[in-house]
């Protein structure tokens, strides 16, 4: 892919997407990092603040237990792949999951198993026994709606970062025609004209 | 309403983040990003309000 093909023009601004694949990978790893690499610093900061604050707020609302990777019977954590859209921040859950899996035999966690990092992003022990408290039910009981909202917040943060990855790879999404109104078009034309005027050198008469 | 009004506060950070990210993934110009974000926030809020009215109506009727 030539360098020229990686330069696009949006809102009358030239954007050098540089290495698109690397930018997309960085965007997944840390929200906004891909844009920072491309020199789109304002958008990088905006994405980082919006996505990470949503993700961290959700993580806190759920008592820091809403992000974990588990595919055990009775606890298929389908939410995790969506939460993992934020990249590095969700990766400790993979480490914990692999560690727990290596200590699980016949869907039963070995007695005395200790997760890493004091259980940070660790999946609950399995199976649930009649005489034991189900850890997931305990999360719900302890945090109530916060647990559900925390899960939702972290999912939304992960999904939003998919849009950001796309933006880092291909540039801004096109505005749907159905969402355009004549006023918006006029405003964009005005913004475009203003940018062109600023770019033009002053005429001799003005000097 | 079966939930307290404070539950609606969960909506505020979400709408801010979602609107800004939506706007920023469609524009490069900051002014246009903010304008698009306001439009998105207004649209989503309106849609949610309509849903709320419909649900209130069914709650009242049924």
Please provide the ordered H/E string of secondary-structure elements of chain B: HH
What proportion of the residues of chain A form beta strands (DSSP E)? 5-15%
| Oligomer type | heterodimer
Q: What's the mean pLDDT score of chain A? A: 85
- Amount of helix of chain A: 40-55%
Distance between the termini of chain B: 14 Å
Secondary-structure-based class of chain A equals: mainly alpha
Q: What gyration radius of chain A follows from the Cα positions, in whole Å?
A: 23 Å
Average of pLDDT of chain B: 92
Largest interface chains and counts: A-B, 34 and 24 residues
Keywords (chain B): Membrane, Transmembrane, Transmembrane helix
Transmembrane segments (chain B): 6-25, 37-58
Protein name (chain A): DUF6677 domain-containing protein
Pfam family, one (chain A): DUF6677
Written overview of the protein:
The complex is a heterodimer of chains A (about 210) and B (about 60). In chain A, about 50% of the residues lie in helices and about 10% in strands. With about 210 residues, chain A is mostly helical. Chain A has a domain at about 65-150. In chain A, strand 3 (about 70) and strand 4 (about 75) form a beta hairpin. The model of chain A has no long low-confidence stretch (mean pLDDT about 85). By secondary structure, chain B is mainly alpha-helical. Chain B has one domain (about 10-60). In chain B, about 75% of the residues lie in helices and about 0% in strands. Chain B is elongated and about 50 Å long. The model of chain B has no long low-confidence stretch (mean pLDDT about 90). The interface of A and B includes residues 12 and 40 of A.
């Amino acid at each position: 892919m030539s360098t020229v093909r990686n330069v696009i023009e949006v809102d009358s601004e030239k954007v050098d997407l540089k290495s698109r694949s690397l930018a997309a990978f960085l965007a997944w790893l840390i929200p906004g990092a891909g844009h920072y690499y491309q020199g789109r610093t304002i958008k990088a900061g905006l994405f980082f603040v919006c996505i990470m604050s949503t993700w961290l707020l959700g993580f806190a609302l759920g008592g820091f237990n809403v992000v974990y990777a588990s595919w055990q019977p009775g606890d298929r954590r389908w939410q995790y792949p969506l939460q993992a859209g934020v990249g590095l921040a969700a990766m400790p859950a993979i480490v914990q999951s692999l560690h727990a899996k290596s200590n699980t035999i016949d869907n039963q966690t070995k007695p005395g198993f200790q997760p890493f990092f004091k259980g940070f992003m660790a999946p609950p022990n399995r199976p649930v026994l009649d005489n034991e408290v189900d850890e997931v039910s305990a999360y719900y009981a302890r945090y109530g709606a916060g647990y559900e909202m925390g899960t939702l917040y972290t999912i939304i943060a992960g999904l939003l970062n998919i849009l950001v990855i796309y933006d880092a790879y291909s540039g801004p999404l096109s505005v749907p025609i159905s969402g355009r109104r004549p006023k918006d078009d006029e405003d964009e034309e005005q913004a475009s004209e203003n940018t062109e005027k600023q770019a033009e050198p002053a005429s001799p008469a003005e000097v | 309403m079966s939930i307290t009004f404070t539950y609606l506060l969960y909506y505020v950070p979400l709408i801010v983040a979602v609107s800004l990210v939506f706007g920023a993934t469609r524009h490069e110009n900051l002014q246009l990003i903010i304008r698009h974000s306001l439009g998105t926030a207004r649209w989503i809020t309106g849609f949610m309000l309509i849903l709320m009215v419909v649900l209130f109506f069914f709650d009242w009727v049924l």
